[in-house]
Task: inverse folding
C-alpha cells in the first residue's frame, strides 16, 4: 500500500462528511458513514496512528458536540471504544483515544448503544487498560458517565 493511502482515505471520509446534502437525515447518515470510514482507516493503519489521529480526533470532537445528532454521537463513542480495544496494549493509547469524551457534554445513550458500551468498557478494563485509565480519575469519571 502506498504510504499516503491512509491520509487519502481520511481525506475522502472528510469530504463525504462535509459534502452538500439536501436533508438532515442524509447529512446524519453521511456523518455516520464518514466516522465509520475514518475509524476503519485507523484500524487498518494502526502503525500510522500518530499521523492520522489528529484528523480523527477533530471529527470526534465535532461528533460529540452538543448539537450533533444522537446517531453521530453514538457512532463516535462506539468507534472510540472499538479502536481502544484494539490498541489497549499500546502505551497511552487508551487515554489518548478516549480523551475526546472528556470535553463532550453528558448525553444519554440509546439502549442499544448502552448495551454495547457497558460490556466493551468491561473488556477494555480487563484487557489491560485499567492501569492507564485508573491513573486518570477524570478519564475514569468520563467513561462511567
Result:
Amino acid at each position: 500500500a502506498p504510504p499516503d493511502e491512509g491520509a487519502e482515505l481520511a481525506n475522502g471520509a472528510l469530504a463525504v462528511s462535509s459534502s452538500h446534502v439536501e436533508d438532515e437525515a442524509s447529512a446524519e447518515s453521511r456523518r455516520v458513514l464518514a466516522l465509520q470510514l475514518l475509524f476503519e482507516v485507523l484500524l487498518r493503519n494502526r502503525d500510522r496512528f500518530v499521523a492520522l489521529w489528529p484528523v480523527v480526533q477533530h471529527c470526534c470532537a465535532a461528533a460529540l458536540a452538543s448539537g450533533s445528532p444522537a446517531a453521530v454521537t453514538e457512532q463516535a463513542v462506539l468507534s472510540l471504544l472499538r479502536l481502544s480495544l484494539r490498541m489497549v496494549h499500546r502505551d497511552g493509547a487508551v487515554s489518548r483515544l478516549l480523551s475526546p469524551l472528556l470535553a463532550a457534554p453528558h448525553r444519554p445513550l440509546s439502549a442499544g448503544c448502552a448495551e454495547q458500551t457497558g460490556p466493551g468498557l468491561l473488556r477494555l478494563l480487563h484487557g489491560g487498560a485499567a492501569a492507564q485509565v485508573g491513573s486518570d480519575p477524570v478519564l475514569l469519571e468520563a467513561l462511567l458517565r
The first helix runs from residue 5 to 18. The radius of gyration is 15 Å.
